Structures are given as C-alpha cells and as structure tokens.
Predict the structure.
Amino acid sequence: MTYRLCSQTGDSIAVPQLIFTNLTRATGDHMRVALYILATHSTDPKDIAHALNLKNVQAAQKALDFWHGVGLLEIEHNTLPVAPVAKKQPPLTAEEFRMAALRDPMVSTLATEAQAYLGHSLGQKDIQRLVSLYVNESIPVDVILLCAAHIASQGRHNVSQLERELDRWSAEGITTGQEAETYLFLLKERGLREAKVAAMLDIPAEALTMADKRCIRRWFEEYGYSETMIEEAILHGNGSKDPKYINGILKSWHAKGWRTPADARGNGSLEGANIRVDRSAPSENDILQRPTRRPLRLKRED
C-alpha cells in the first residue's frame, strides 16, 4: 500500500529549515515541542508539559534548551528570569504517615475521601504520596479533593495524574478551596464555549486542538467578544473552518477597536457580499406592488 500527501486546506504552518537540519539529533520529545511552539508560540515549559503529556516540566525545559542551543529560540532579555522548578520532597515513609495520621485527623479524612473521589482503592504507597501533598507541600485538603474529583470526571484516576494537575493549578496561582472552585467554574465555562464554537464551525468539539482552545479562550476572555461577533468572523472566513484562521480575523478586528458586527460591516469588510450595510432598517418599498399611477399595459399578440 502506498500513500500520498493530502491536499492542504489552509491548516498548515511553516516549518523552519533549521528543524529539518537537526532531525537526526532531536528526540521525539524535541520534535513534539518544536511543532507545538510553531503552532501556539507558547514557550512556557509547564504549559508545554501539560499539553503534550510529557513526563515532567524538566523534559519540556530540556527540549526548550535544545532548540535554544541550535538557534531556533532566543532569550527574551526584557523579561524576568524564569524561577527554577521547586524540587519536590520525597513521599512520606510508612512511619511518617502513621505519625502524621496520629497528629492530624485530616490525614485519615483525606485518604478516605480521595479514594472515593478517584473511584478506586489506593495502595499504601499511593496513599503516602497523596498525604505528602498535604503534609509536605501544604496543599489544603479541600483543594486536593476538588482536584481529585475534577480529574476523575475526565477519566483520570491515579495519584500521578493528580500530582501533575495540582502542579498545574499551583502554576495558575490556585492555593485555596475558593480559588479552586472559581477555577473549575471557569473550566466549565470554557468547555461550553468550545462546544458552541465547534458547532458554529461544524466540527466535533473533540477535534479542537490545544492551540484551537487557546484561540477560543482569547476571543472571550481577552478580546471580550460575544458569540455573535465570532459568528460574524466565521462569515468573513470565506468558508474556512480553521479556528486559527478565524483567530486572525478577530485579532485584526480587536486591534482596530471593532466591538460589534455592525463595526465590521460598517467599515466595508463585507463589500461585495450580500449583506446590507447602508440601511439599518427595510425601506418598506414592495417592488412587487404596482404603482397606482402606472397604466396597465398588456403584451401585444402578433
């Protein structure tokens, strides 16, 4: 069986020759990180590690260092230096766990409730890792349980996934139960928005990439646009169903200060299209109604 490259429909991105030059030196993680950066322009190691499901943040940082070393990335001198990733303390030993449970009744509560939220019983080692999040890292019990319920709703049920999600929450500045509840509400709103935009574009919500979701988040949270404005941008998209193409339109409109569909129409963006921009209301003239003063004329028969 042989294959050929499918025709592109505007969803391609330019890949620098430098990446092809270093194909033999780059690992699989290096290549995934490079392509993610080209698609999203994000160089945040925590974001990259989460989006690509890398083993840890250090793996993303090593890939960034590699591409900086070969000349694909450069250091931003006008930004503050990135703080080093804090080294995690080792999990509690069996004796440390026993003593912690004797001193603090919340330890037993955490171990019991977390297993219920994750949906299965944990082994002793996993319980010790779980309690270490509370004892060693000072993460509140309600934050841990909210996070456990959140990942379980996504089909993730182990302590390693819980630790990674809590690391991401920490990077977002979530340190209290109230902040966690607010963040989860925001995630729910984002999910609803993504589903609505996917329906507008006539594509499955599951087909949206992380880069697509970032674009959608920017439209609502940074630009402050409504669904009607997004529908207007899709109308201007010449049939394109690519969120990144629609993002280019909305980014341009935001830079021009256009806030409503009327702004875009009134500035001639749809010139030549079958949308009226010169009259806000119908003229009430019925072209099918014959004027009373015009005489009735019948066609002459030969």
Summary: Residues 270-278 have pLDDT under 50 and may be disordered. Residues 185-266 form one domain. The chain has three domains: 17-69, 94-175, 185-266. DSSP finds 14 helices and no strands in the chain.
